[in-house]
Amino acid sequence: MLRHVLALRNVSQRTISTAPCRQIRNRVPELQKIFQEDNGLPVHLKGGIADVLLYRATMTLSVLGTVYVVYELFMAAMPKKQK
Prior knowledge:
The protein has three helices and no strands. The protein has helices spanning 2-17, 28-36, 49-77.
């Protein structure tokens, strides 16, 4: 019985320790070339179409939020008419 437990332990250790490590490719040098390139774009737009879409969505929400706040302040400043 003890031999079976030890064999199971050895098998489990071998399975875990010999599992192939997943190698992740280092993309930092590629990204450094992209972000340090002098192409007239601001750094927050050099990441591609995803950065452009996020930037435009953020600006749109900011402008709409500002307009809404100004509208609400204007409505709060106006006295309500009595009947």
